[in-house]
Amino acid sequence: LSNELDEVLSQVIVEMIDFYNIITVKRGLSQNKSHGDILQLLSDEVSISAKEFIYIVENQEIFVWFNKINPSLDSIFSTYELKMQDATISSSELEFLCDLLLYKTLDQGRYNVEGPLVLARYLLGCEFEVKNLRMIISALQNTIPFESIKERIRPHYGS
Known about the structure:
Layout: H1 7-30, H2 35-41, H3 50-58, H4 62-69, H5 78-85, H6 91-106, H7 116-141, H8 146-150
Helix pairs in contact: 1-2, 1-3, 1-6, 6-7
């Protein structure tokens, strides 16, 4: 499917699957799952093999992997890059980083008025909105101050 799509959309697909694999491996290893159990959950049809994802997480090379899929030197990623270098980045931070990277990648097409990027940006925005609303509702339900969840709100509305 990704071979027939626009280059930016192909990049987004690879980023999504790669991040899914990295996050799944990180969570699986933190739960002491076997490599076989983890491999069953991974997609092997992306930039590298499923076994390589396990190697990357086990050997704390997430930073090296991230720089390969994201060659930009955008300062917005610097906090996450430092945590990757220190091997202290959590799975939830990787999820947020994935959302941020997808947002930045699709933002390249913000001035397009037709084509698949318009729909992809709209759908990503809808997904972020759902995540944000769930977080806000959860905070209200559990009487958590908005300031404490503000930094976890997904990039949206041109921010």
